[in-house]
Specification:
By secondary structure, the protein is α/β, with parallel strands linked by helices. The chain has three domains: 63 residues, Multidrug-efflux Transporter Regulator, Chain: A, Domain 2 (Orthogonal Bundle); 102 residues; 134 residues, Rossmann fold (3-Layer(aba) Sandwich). 49% of the residues lie in helices and 12% in strands. It has 13 helices and eight strands. The strands form two sheets. The chain has a five-stranded parallel beta sheet, with helices on both faces. A hairpin with a 5-residue loop joins β2 and β3. α5 runs antiparallel to α6 and α5 packs across α7. The protein is elongated, with a radius of gyration of 23 Å. The chain starts with 8 loop residues before the first strand and ends in an 11-residue tail after the last helix. Bound molecules: cobalamin. Cobalamin binds next to α7, α8, α10, β6 and β7.
């Protein structure tokens, strides 16, 4: 048996959550059914993570920690910190360690687990988990601690995690689209990165957030000409266009996209226009809202999702799909 780590003394409900059973089942298992536990002075059961995992494997119960062996305890602590306290430091150092040791699939699996959890808001994971992790990767590369190949592996690991969990498992059905009753079609958004910008992990975060909120997202990826956002918005009657902007793309890129989209705008197919990115210049001024229904600049996915939720509740501008 592996040595038990005293940091990893779990409560009955933590073990129940991990093994996917009711806490009363865990209590029963500790009462003479083979799950080792001790009691605190106050009489509460405490169970070592290792003991819970050994017990689970003896009963053929799978946990999300299984594929991470022999790092189960590191992963459990990272996930607890992230989901329980919004603290991603342990997660970053674990992922960085795997990256430099050449285990990018573990990095993907770890972020995939986090993206899938319902006790961790996805916007928090994107803004405070994924973005700072990638910043750290960028800094490590600049300082010569990571090779460029490792930086690329990190990007790929995160991209894969965000793509694998995309809920749009179903293919679009052109026949059904025409037949579905007005108002019951999901609202459509066009999402991608501004022309000249090769970064698109941020826009993938936005795609996933919108999909999880019931949107159908047409995803254009990196380096997309403004004309293409416009063309797709019109043919698919999109209600929202989201353009991600990362440095070195900057004000000139945003102004050009704003100008091109404005020129192609058709009032009979109205939409909201959003530019997003943590490094959007603070002094950026757009000339009013142009012809658009509204124009917004957001520096985080949390700010954006707040707005999306409020917007969906406005009756006059409901984000439901409009009729053709
Ligand atoms: C990975 C990476 C790359 C990868 C991108 C891979 C990919 N498929 O996306 C590659 C290798 C292609 C790359 C290329 C380059 N990169 Co680069 N890259 C990075 C790095 C390390 C991470 C970026 C990232 O993915 N972050 C994770 C995501 C989740 O964060 P995010 O994009 O900021 O998104 C968040 C918010 O901004 C916001 N958000 C983003 N989009 C949107 C959209 C909407 C609608 C909303 C609401 C919100 C929103 O929400 C997200 C969640 O919080 C950064 C480092 C850093 N400090 O950021 C450098 C960085 C951005 N790159 C940089 C540079 C210089 C380059 C290159 C010019 C390098 C070169 N010489 O070729 C090229 C640029 C090419 C181009 N024209 O775009 C610099 C930019 C510095 C500057 N001020 O100009 C940085 C800052 C690194 C540095 N410090 O030097 N890069």
């Amino acid at each position: 048996m592996q040595p038990y780590n005293s940091d990893l003394f779990l409560t009955t409900s933590e073990v129940a959550h991990l093994l996917g059973v009711h806490p009363s089942t865990v209590k029963r298992w500790t009462d003479g059914e083979g799950l080792e536990a001790s009691k605190t002075d106050g009489g509460h059961r405490r169970i070592y993570l290792r003991a819970a995992l050994d017990f689970a494997s003896g009963r053929g119960i799978e946990t999300y920690l299984g594929p991470f062996a022999p790092f189960e305890s590191h992963v459990w602590l990272s996930v607890q910190d992230a989901a329980g306290h919004g603290d991603f430091r342990r997660l970053r150092s674990l992922a960085m360690g795997w990256l430099v040791r050449g285990y990018p699939r573990r990095v993907t699996a770890l972020f995939q687990e986090l993206v899938d959890r319902d006790d961790l808001p996805l916007e928090l994971l994107c803004d405070r988990g994924i973005r700072p992790f990638m910043e750290e990767v960028g800094a490590a590369w600049r300082e010569g601690r990571l090779r460029i190949g490792e930086e690329h592996m990190a990007s790929q690991a995160i991209l894969e995690a965000l793509i694998r969990v995309s809920p749009q498992g179903r293919l679009e059905d052109p026949a059904a689209e025409g037949e579905v009753e007005e108002g019951s079609r999901p609202p459509v958004a066009v999402v991608g990165a501004v022309e000249g910008d090769q970064h698109h992990i941020g826009s993938l975060c936005i795609r996933l957030l919108l999909e999880r909120s019931g949107w159908q997202v047409l995803y254009l990826g990196a380096n997309t000409p403004a004309e293409e956002f416009s063309a797709l918005q019109q043919t698919r009657r999109a209600r929202l266009v989201c353009i991600s902007v990362s440095p070195p793309a900057s004000v000139a890129h945003i102004l050009r996209a704003f100008d091109v989209l404005g020129r192609f705008y058709r009032p009979e197919h109205p939409y909201d226009l959003v530019f997003g990115g943590a490094d959007l210049p603070r002094d950026l001024k757009l000339d009013g809202t142009g012809p658009f229904r509204s124009v917004h600049l957001f520096r985080s996915s949390a700010e954006f999702m707040d707005w999306v939720q409020k917007r969906a509740q406005e009756p006059s501008t409901s984000l439901q799909e409009e009729g053709p």
